[in-house]
Amino acid sequence: MSIDHLSRPGRSPGSTTFYNQRGVAVTDQWLVVHGKRFLITELRHLERARGPMPSPARTALLTGLAALVVVGSVAFVLDAPAAWAIAVLTAAAALGVVMFRGRRWPASFQMWADYRSRPTLLFETGDEQEFGQVSRAMIRAVELGRRGRLT
Fold first, then answer.
1. What secondary structure letter does DSSP report for 126?
2. Alpha helices (runs of H) in the chain, residue ranges in sequence order
3. In whole angstroms, what is the distance from residue 115 CA to residue 124 CA?
4. Where are the transmembrane segments (predicted)?
5. What share of the chain in percent tops pLDDT 70?
6. What is the C-alpha separation between 51 and 88, in angstroms, rounded?
């Protein structure tokens, strides 16, 4: 699928394409994300952010914290070396699970902007490399749009 198919209306012949992969296209005039079109000149306050923690990672974190509270309380009450050893091992296991889940289900990368005076999520992906490429393309498109308005 090419950018010509996605953004033919209003597209000038001299248009520059900065990115065009996996249903996302950035030109000097448009951002097209899976069929949704945003006019570059109407984007204000472009921001990059991380999305919320995914459910599996959040569940692992809460389960690990609950286990630490229970085992830590028991170790504190018993005050025996074996109880403290179990508490430390539980903490290490909980940390390992949380780290594994965090890598397996990382928070998404998001690009936000004010579009027609409304905060709008423009683009979201879990792929850090794709996000970087789209971000750089957006920066170039916005800078080119600003230069065009100044001349």
1. S
2. 3-7, 55-78, 81-104, 128-150
3. 16
4. 60-78, 84-102
5. 88
6. 32
N-to-C CA span, the chain: 33
* 149 CB neighbour count, 10 Å cutoff: 8
pTM: 0.63
| DSSP state letter for 12 | -
- Please give the structure tokens belonging to residue 3: 């950018």
**C-beta neighbour count of 63 within 10 angstroms:** 14
Q: What is the pLDDT of residue 148?
A: 63
Determine the 3-state secondary structure of 107 from DSSP: coil
